[in-house]
User: Fold these one by one.
Assistant:
Number 1:
Amino acid sequence: MTFLARPADTALLRQIQRIVTNAFIIVGTVAVFAYVLLPFYWMLKSSLQTDLEIMKIPSVWFPTQLSFRSYARAMTIIPFARYISNSLFVSGVTTAVCTILASMAGYVLARHKFPGATVLLMLFLFTQLIPSITRVFPVYFMLQRLHLLNSYLGLTIAYVSFSLPYSVLMLQGYFRGSYPHELEEAALLDGCTWFSAFMRIVLPISIPGIIAVATYSFLGAWNDFLWASLLLNKGEMKTIQVGLRDFVGEFGVQGMNNFMAACAMTTIPAILLYGLGQKYIVQGMSAGAIKG
Amino acid sequence: MTSKTTVNRRHFLRLAAVGAAALGLAACGGAAPTATPAPKAAGPTPTTAPAAKTPVNITMWTMNYGPDTAVWLQMMQDIAKSFKDKSGISVDVQMCSWDVCRPKLLLINQGGEHPDCADMFWLWSNVGLGRGKYGPMPITEYKAELFPDLEQRFAMAGMQDGFYLNEFYGPVYRGDPRTLMYRNDVLQAVGLNKSPSTWDELTEYAKTAQKVDKAGNVTMWGFEFGTDTTKPQQLVTYYWQAGGEFMTKDGKTATIDNDQMRQTLKWMYDMIWTHKVVPPDFMEKGHAAFDLFTGQSLAIAGQSGIGDCNNLDQKFKELDGKWTWDVLATGPKNRVSYYGAGYWGVIRGTKYPYECAKWIAYLSQDENLIRLSQYGGFMSPNKAVMAQPFWNDRPWKKVLPKVMEQIHPSQHPSSAWSAMMVNEPGGVMYDFYYDALVKKVDFDTVIKRTQQRMQTEMDKAAAMEQHNLSMI
Amino acid sequence: MGRNRIIFCYLMVAPAVILVLVITVYPMLESLRMSFLAYDLMRINIDGTPFVGLKNFDTILHDQRFLISLKNTFLFAIIVVSAVIFLGLMMAQLLNMSFRGRGVLRSLILIPWVTPPVVAATIWVWMYQPERSPFNQVLRALGIIQTNIRFLADTTTFLGGISIPMLAVSSVRIWNGLPFVTLMILAGLQSIPVELYEAAEIDGAGALARLRFITLPSLRPVLAILITLLGLGAIGHFEVNYVMTGGGPRDLTSILAVVAYRQAFSFYRFDLASAISTVILVLTSLIATFYIRSRMSET
């Protein structure tokens, strides 16, 4: 490679390298984002087409006419607004309760060495691994005995307990690393109790971690189908995931465009919400994940 | 500092109170009545209601039918309201979508939560599973009083799904025969101007109508065995048409090891692999023949249901006039149609079996059935319904009487049948057809293996039935 | 430790612990118990639910379908976890660089996470239908293939069990997991001091070298956590495989959780379903114990 020893040529080579690398990066990025976004696009475009156009072979990529009628229809075919508010309610309460309980537990597990702390930590670590599928029958009958079936309370309890292990661990990691011990000790010296130190000092600093946990538990509850379909499917109390299945008649989906419109209306608000909060989510996960 | 401490503990307590209140609200929300409050009991004194002083409330689940779930539910609730005016019994009708209903029925049979009565199916298996303690409840004792003219108003051939072991469980209100559907324009374009009427003609028509592009991709499939997404259901019909039965009339012995089965399997096998007119993926989960039909890549669907026709009428108007519904092609012995059914029945554990039976009798009155079947788009064994102009206003509907001349009920005398028909790998019938027609296992092997499996399941079910009978 | 402090700790941790014990641990034990009983709904009133020892395990270990699903579960886990981490690493690196519109891209990448798995699976099934698939359209237009790929029905296998349907279903599971992994790795990247990279660049290290010697080692803890969590999730996964293919064709996409669910809700064999769940439990316990031990040793 002696002919490239001259500085000018080395610079040229490096420029070419950079262009090629950038080209790869751009192509790769476009490919990945196409992969990420294609189904979403497909859902949106189908919601604007007629059933005939959706079924056409080969597929029609761009709707020939933009018709939003399927959105209106979707809202009347099933009690859409009611289902969405049910989901919001259940997911919201789940998030609130899970976040509160997880911060309480995560905090003491992170900052205080008390007898049994290690065992409890291991309990949470261990319970993370149990796949939902194995718990279905026992949980159903347990809730039935407690008369908590088809009640928001029953489903919420189930959702909270599913999200707790990961949330506790995440917040535990977060609390451990995100601020120096001196802060609490200073507060104690000032005469605060442990509770008030927790409330006044720890929580306000931990907003990103809490948002990360809140995101996780909200989505876990919002997206769930298996449990909601078994534990809460009485008429108007259904969550939206179960409600979406109302579209599926005996012979399959009746009205694919309406169904796609309903799916779109289910996912778009969540996307907007998390788009706004993504900065905090990354921050929260960062502290929680690494130091944990 | 102390004052600040107190304030902060209060903050925390307030937060906890909010959380507790939220959970409390959730608990209350669950117990509160659903959106449509039942109107206060008023109106004329009921004529035949029982002498109970306290108002009776019963719950009912229904699946969804027709284009709009909300409209269907509203119709049922309207009928409930007029029932309440007449009898003083209030009925809370709730929706349970098809998807969710199978596991729910299973859980009911195990003593899980249940309504007083429901829109049901698979009576025979559920009776077996319920062990006489849970699940479907016979209402034979009320039949004479509440259903005096059942035999006159209904075509009893279509009512078998509501009877079991000499007990009456409820009236079959919807029937679902399957019959032939094809693209008449596609067939005419290749010179075929009438419906295929034998299996040989099906083969010939399918081969002629099939189109393949240069690269070997099929752009028009000739044939699919049926549009039902529950695959075994559409495959059993062909054996019946060859004159075969899956079991003896007493439900005790499996009877598939014979020439008729081999003949049927051979024809089906040839359609897929020799003539190559059937998509080889036809049994896979994501494969829906009806989607191919509406995607205009399928010429003939061997069986399709009323739901498909309604769907085409409402959502695919561009295809109007291009498709035809007709009687099935005749097999070696007959052209029976697969006939599925649903009934309304009472569930064990209810405190009000008489009131439920009364409600069901009211629902099954001619006027109500006419309304429901018109919107839901399903056929009914009820004679008044089928005489309606609504059931004669489209060319495909006129075919129904001819179809109903030769039907074969989907239920079988053994309560193991429904379990055997499960549409999943591992189901007896699913494995049978999958092994023979997709995995291409030798017919003799598959038939013998399946006969054994069927017999085991049927023996199991028979033993349970004996046990149940001894408990009644 | 002061007594007040200890009481405070227990009070704070109690609600979470109680909930987890009741809703998670108890059902797990109950399910474990059921795997040693006979629990066939079709025979229950004749035979009851007697103790049968290891009979259920014997049955499933001799069932071809179970063994195939066991193998597939591992194959899926390997494919999904390695692909999602590879892609996540790529995306996280990209989203860590500063450029205009980064926030928008970061929001877009969240889409698969907020899409419910059942909805996503339904759409992907639609897009993988051979005749209608946009992928087939594009591939044919580019001349790469002539005949449509049957994404969910092609039964050719290679490398001892991998098939096109397996790859297709994996692509959806990867799709679902990508946002979470990307964000986790991104969080990890942000804690790597910039000075390390600057020093390396001065020393003349190229992009690849920087990746090998700085990025990956610094990310080791995050990646360890991720691989463990993803692996655990993969072993117990249910929804995507069930909705998309139900385990077919020919059990090529059949996994443990699907087989268990089917045994319970289609064939009423809760004994076999519980036995399979126990297998899932044992496998995940092994991984989890390993993971817990390594985390404990770090603290």
Number 2:
Amino acid sequence: MYDGIMREEIERFVAALAIPEDRRLVVRAELIDHVECAIEAARKEGRDPEAAAREALGNLEALRRSLEAVEPAFRISRLHAFVRGVVASLVIAVVIDLGTTSMAGALGMITSLAVAIACAPPRALDMLRGELRARRVRGTVLASVPIGPALTYVFTVLSGPFVVWIAMIVTRAFGGHTEVDAPWSAFSVVAGGYLLLLVEGLRARRAAEA
Amino acid sequence: MARTRDVVPRGALRALILAALAEADLHGYALARQLEERARGMLKIREGSLYPALHELELEGAVEATWTRAPDGRRRRVYSITSAGRRAAKGARAEWLAIADMLHSLLGA
């Protein structure tokens, strides 16, 4: 019934994709369904089923590139995003703390923003936009969007460095060191993060009102 | 007859997908064929862009997919639009119609 050559081609293609295992199953099932639908349609219309199947599969290289760009984001759970946020927070806190004066200004700001961006989950911005557009849920006090992986990452990386710095301050205070320095660069991720939330939140609200 | 286009701007494809799913739940192949039929031969939906676009919309919560079975028993994913997707569809439609109007007045006869 079904063209075995195409099945082999699909299996080979799917096996070589650099995507999470559960998404591989989704892609495989969708491609097989797509090709079989094309074969059925071709048979009904008296066209060559094999040619129809090949045409339906299209440019596999283009499909591979697109899927490998999208699929890894499905792997991101809130826990995964939280862990990434904790790692980013630790790196930012230590770099700013150890860098002392060299990291107090623009270099520290750029470095901490770069760390926050580098540690972000794949397609975090797209996920954030999606989460901000989600239907609001009513809580005890306010109605708000449910917190997904992108918001988890943003709030972890906004607050994480301060938790580490407070721990450092308290530890050093017990050692007799009571001087606290708060460089401007310590606030770059907070400022950048809230600016991002403000801009994307307004865009989401405007889209909801449209 | 107008030339068939097989490269649809990414945003336009997302808008077309949402518009089609706003009318009925569809699986990938049916969605592609429905869009092509609506375009009356002027558009060819490439699988290389269709499924990644569907998966992106799924990630963003604009569509959701459920597993069903085709008549011969093979597994099939059927996509449906969510309420966030309906809002996005409305916005995208207005945006693309405005762009089309603008282009028509700038480039039109």
